[in-house]
Amino acid sequence: MKYFVLLFAFCIVIHQGAMYGQAGVPKKISYQSALTVVVNAKTKTAKKGTYSMRFELYDDPAAGTLILTNDQTVTVGSKGVYTTTIGEDGSSQGKLDGSVFNRLLWLKITLLSGADTRVTYPYEVPGRVQLTSVPYALGPWASNETNVYYNGGNVGIGTSSPQRLLHVSGDQSFGVARFERASSSTNLLTLSLQLKGKTSGNMIDNYGTGIRFLIEDDASVENAIALIGASRDGADNSGALRFFTTIGGVTDNERMRITSEGRVAIGTTSPNTDSRTTISAASEDRALNLVGNTTVAGGNQATLRVENAGSSEIAASFNPDVYVFDDLSVGGTLSKGAGAFKIDHPLDPANKFLYHSFVESPDMMNMYNGNVLLDGGGQAIVELPAWFEALNKDFRYQLTAIGMPGPNLYISQKIQNNRFSIAGGSAGMEVSWQVTGIRHDAYANANRIPVEEDKPGHVRGHYLHPEEHGLPKDLKIDPERTGERKIQRTPSDADEDPTQSD
Length: 502
Known about the structure:
Elements: E1 3-14, H1 17-20, E2 29-39, E3 42-45, E4 49-58, E5 66-76, E6 81-86, E7 91-94, E8 106-113, E9 123-124, E10 129-130, H2 135-138, E11 141-143, E12 148-150, E13 155-157, E14 166-168, E15 209-216, E16 222-232, E17 239-247, E18 251-258, E19 264-266, E20 277-279, E21 340-344, E22 353-357, E23 365-373, E24 380-383, H3 388-391, E25 392-402, E26 410-413, E27 419-423, E28 430-439, H4 442-446, H5 491-494
Parallel strand pairs: 13-14, 19-20
Antiparallel strand pairs: 1-2, 2-3, 2-6, 4-5, 4-8, 5-7, 8-9, 8-10, 11-12, 15-16, 16-17, 17-18, 18-19, 21-22, 23-28, 24-27, 25-28, 26-27
């Protein structure tokens, strides 16, 4: 039997144009070798002439996956030397592009027909030839045995026309790129962005490093829509994180900034130095609009909760007015300059408001009243709620006769067991009564309101309402600067028996 063997692989050139995004690099392999034939156990040079040859590319020296099949018509010359191009000319099945060359590859050669009549066709040349690269195959890429780098043009992944130094294109559900930190150790970055060349000075007017968000329209025009930038915050190496939106694809407008001190500014580039978050709005806008949709079984969940974990007792301050459109619950003491209710006027609700002022007292006073008819003896017993004496002490009384004089009306029995008695009237007389009491429940005993209080030294000479006293507005007391503002229990209240009652 007669055999062909491959004497040597003279040169294998792997062109990886698709891998590097170079449109002019052909997607093919240039291959040159010499063909010999073994006749009666002796190696002979293959005869000159034309041969039909099949080249197959595998990822294993013996088995593996078939990547490419390419049939070529090859002319064998003197000493059996031939040259051909695999992957672009002839009849091919498979695809030869950059994705092929990320592994080791072997070439299998089969002779389908040819000029040498000493061989039986088809014939598979024994052994597969491993492909190796040459400088042209690496194209513009270079290596220093540690790093691989690229110094010219753009690199495309998933695109043959990259628009940036690195252009990644795809349609994956979880994004077209993934950056993963292989170690779970602390203080390791997953992605680092760096601006080179600016080592000193204030960069707050420059973006520094950042991420630009673009949208490409139907005409393939890139339109800028937003930007996240990091820049030096001052002359040292402190940094600020800045967020921009873009109007008309041209003008970047800073909407939020986080300073190196951790202060957040929204709607302004200058956060207040005494606040962690500053929100500024145009005159026609609300600075903050919170809409909650929380439901908790057996209770309520707040849309907004403000809590001061420090030593100050001020959690929030508002200037000027605050509107509450529904119920307001205050768990502590409400201190105010004045108080009133405001409603739509009962007689002209579409055009007028009606106000009434609160009834004030230096004491924590409750007021109760009612009407009662006297019996045949000119007397009556007024029953009060069961909690009355538990809540109140130091009672005061007023009686008014209705419909006829009652000069002899009097309280015949003060409040006891949650009732009091009236006497001295005429049979069937109607009497209007009023009783006031001073709270002595547990909370009231612990939080008596002082009638007079000296101003702390650091606010003396300043006023809650300076303009009403004909003084400049800058003498107004800022509630955040007044120190201890919580109303304290007076010493006399602490010594009182909370169950005492007249």
